[in-house]
Amino acid sequence: MLSAEIIAIGSELLTPFKTDTNSLWLTEKLNEIGIEVKLKTVVGDDEARLEETVRDAIKRSDIVITTGGLGPTEDDITRKITAKALDKDLIFKQKLLDDLRERFKSFGYEMPEKNRSQAYIIDGSEVLPNPRGSAVGMLSDLSEKYLVVLPGPPRELKPMFEKYVLPKLKESAGDIVVLRRSLRVSGMGESSLDELIAPIYTKYKNPQTATLFNKTEIEIQLTAQGNTKEEAESLLDELANKIADKLGMAVFAKKGEKMEEVIGRILIEKNKTLSVAESCTGGLIGERLTEVSGSSKYFIEGSVTYHNDAKIRNLSVPKDVIENHGAVSGEVAEAMALGMRKKAETDYAISVTGIAGPTGGTEEKPVGTVFIGYSDEEETKSIKLNLPGDRYLIRWRSSQAALDYLRRNILKKEDD
Amino acid sequence: MLSAEIIAIGSELLTPFKTDTNSLWLTEKLNEIGIEVKLKTVVGDDEARLEETVRDAIKRSDIVITTGGLGPTEDDITRKITAKALDKDLIFKQKLLDDLRERFKSFGYEMPEKNRSQAYIIDGSEVLPNPRGSAVGMLSDLSEKYLVVLPGPPRELKPMFEKYVLPKLKESAGDIVVLRRSLRVSGMGESSLDELIAPIYTKYKNPQTATLFNKTEIEIQLTAQGNTKEEAESLLDELANKIADKLGMAVFAKKGEKMEEVIGRILIEKNKTLSVAESCTGGLIGERLTEVSGSSKYFIEGSVTYHNDAKIRNLSVPKDVIENHGAVSGEVAEAMALGMRKKAETDYAISVTGIAGPTGGTEEKPVGTVFIGYSDEEETKSIKLNLPGDRYLIRWRSSQAALDYLRRNILKKEDD
After folding, report:
1. Contact (Cβ atoms closer than 8 angstroms) between residue B165 and residue B25
2. What domain range is B299 assigned to?
3. What pLDDT score was predicted for residue B415?
4. B141 vs A: CB within 8 A
5. For the whole model, what pTM was predicted?
C-alpha cells in the first residue's frame, strides 16, 4: 500500500479559528484508491519549517501533497519553497501569464502586477489547470514518488485533484478498490441506533462500519475493500441492505444523499409541488431546497413570515388563532401550512414556527419549542418538538425535522 | 516570542472523518500568553514517523505539545516514543499503579493488566494528574525547552493543561499580551486590496497582518503584542484605522462582525425595518438575517418567489415586465423590491433575481448573471452582477452583494 503525507500551508491554519479540512477530503479520495495517509502537517509562512517539512515528507512517503500558499501575495511561499526542497528552480511560463491576463480581462479587470508570481512553476513539473482560480497546481514526478502542489480553496483543489492527479496516482497504486457508502438516518439517537445495528455490523470485518453524529442526523459509514469495483459494491450492498431493513423509514438516504435531494427526488417522481412557510428558520428550508439544482420544478414559493402581521397578511393565519394559542403553537403551524398551500396552489406545504433562542423562551414554551405543520389535499396537521442546542442548531434541526416530516407523510400515503 | 508545535497522535485523526480540534483550543490558550504555534502535525501509530516528528519539533521549537496516544492498548505509542525521542528511559511508578488500581476499584472494577503500561513515565518528567481519566500527562523540562505530553480526550486535556501546564509556560513566556482583530471587506478582489494596503501594513512588524479570502469577502487579520492589554489594543487601533481609512466603505466590519450583524446594528440604530424578496437565493438572505438573535426587531418578512407566478401574485411584479425583460432583469429586481417594501410596509426592501446554474444560462444571460434590487421611500433601483463560481458560491455571493448594496445605500444617505 502506498503512503501519502499532506501538508497544509497557511498561517491562518495556525490560528484558533481555522482548521484544515482539505486533508479530510483528500484522505477520502486517496483511501478510495488504496493509498494510506500516514502524516499530516500544518505549517504557516515559516520558510525554514516548510522546507524541512517538505524534504522530510518526500524522504519518508511515496506521495506528498501540499495545499495552499499559491496566492499572489508576499506570504504565499509554497511555490518558492517546494522548488527549493526539491533543489529545483522556479521557471517563468509566458503562457501562464497570458492566461492570467486573459482571466482578469474576462471579469473586466486588468491583472495586478502581483499576480505575475503565479506564472512561475517548479522546473520539470506538470501544470495542473485551475478553471476556478488564478493559481495553477503542479505535479512533480520524482521517479517512484510524486509531489503534488494544490491551491487551498476547496472549490479549486477538488476538481483539480480529481481530474489531473487522481488518475495518475491510481496507476501507481494498483488494483485495490476501496469503496465507501453512507446511510443517513433521521429522528433517532446515536445509542439507540447502535443497539439496533451493532449485532449486524460487528459480524463483518469487511465492510468496516463507523457511525458519525452530524448536527441533526446520523451517518452510518461503510468501507469495503475488494479486488474489483463489483466485489466491493456487492459487499456494501449486502451490509447496507441488512442495516436499512432493520432501521426502516428512519433511513432517509441509502447512498449518502442530503435530505433536500431526497425530497426533490420524491417530488419529481410523483410530479408534485411544494411551498414552505417559515418563521424561526427564517428562510433556511427554502435555501436548502433551492440549493438542489432543478428545484424550480417542484419548489414554487416560500414565505418567511417572521412578524405576526406577515403571518396574517400572507398566509391568512386568523388573528384570533395567534392571540389564543400564541405564534408558537400547533394551531398556528397548521394555519401557516394550510394558508401557504392554498395561496401557492401546491400539492404540499410545510411550515415551522418555534423559539430558536437564545431569548424568547418562557416556562411553558422554552427555547427549542418548535412546531412543524404539514398540509396536503386531504389533511393538515402538526407535531411539536423540543429541540436541544443553540440558535444555530435549533434552526438546523427544525429545518431537518420539517423536511423529514414531509418525507414520512408522503411515503406513508404510498404505503396505504 | 516563544514558539510551539503541536503533535496530535492517533490513527483515527488520519481518516476522512475525524479532525484534530484540540490544537485549536491549545493554540488559543498559547496565543493568549504570547506563544506562537508554528507547526502542527497529525501522526498515527507509525513509530518511526512519530519519533522523527518529535525529534524535529524539539530541535526547532521552544515548546512541544503532544496530544493522544496515552491509552493502555498496543497502538498507544506516545509514552514509549516520546521517551525515545528524548533519549530517555520510561520508568515505573508504583504510586501511579496504586492510583490506577484505586481508580478502577472506585468504579467497581478490577484494573485490567493492560493498564499497567500507564504507570510508566518519561524519566525526569513531572507527572500531570488526570482526575477525569486513567492516563496521566507528563511535562519534561529540557532546559529552556518543554515537552508536554497530554491525553487526547478534550475533557481530560483541557483542565490538565490549564491547571498544570499554562502557569509554567506563562513564567517562561513573560508578560506578553497578544490580541487579534479582524476587518472584513466586501466588493473587492484579494490582489487589488493587497495593492492598496500592503504599503501600509508592511511598515508594521507589530501588529502582524494576514489577509484571508473567504467565500465572498476578505478578512484582514491583525495580531498585536504588547506588555499590557491597553498597549496591544492601541497598536491594533492605529493600524486598523489606517487600513479602514484607505479602504473606505469597502470595510464593512472593523471588529470581525458578520455582514448580517452589521446590517442588524445599522437598522437598530436607525430604528428601521427591512423585508427581502428572493428568487435565486431561495431564502438564504432571510436565513442569514434571522441567524442574528434579535433580528425580529427589524426583519419583518421575506418572500421566496421562485416561480414567476409567485412574483406576480406576492410582489405585484407586472406580468408584462417579466414578459418583456425576462425574470432575470433589473426591471424585475426593482419591481420585486418595490412590491416587497409596499406589501410588508418596511423602510427598506432588497431583492435578488439571477441564474445560479448549473443550468438555465443563455448567451445573453449566462450563469452568474444576477440583479440586485433596492427600494426605500425615495428611490428604487438595481445593479447587475456577473458572479463567478458554482451554484453554491453564486448564491452566497448574491446574498452578500444584496446585503452590501443595502448597507452602502443606507450609509450613503447618511453622508448626504
Report:
1. no
2. 259-415
3. 65
4. no
5. 0.77
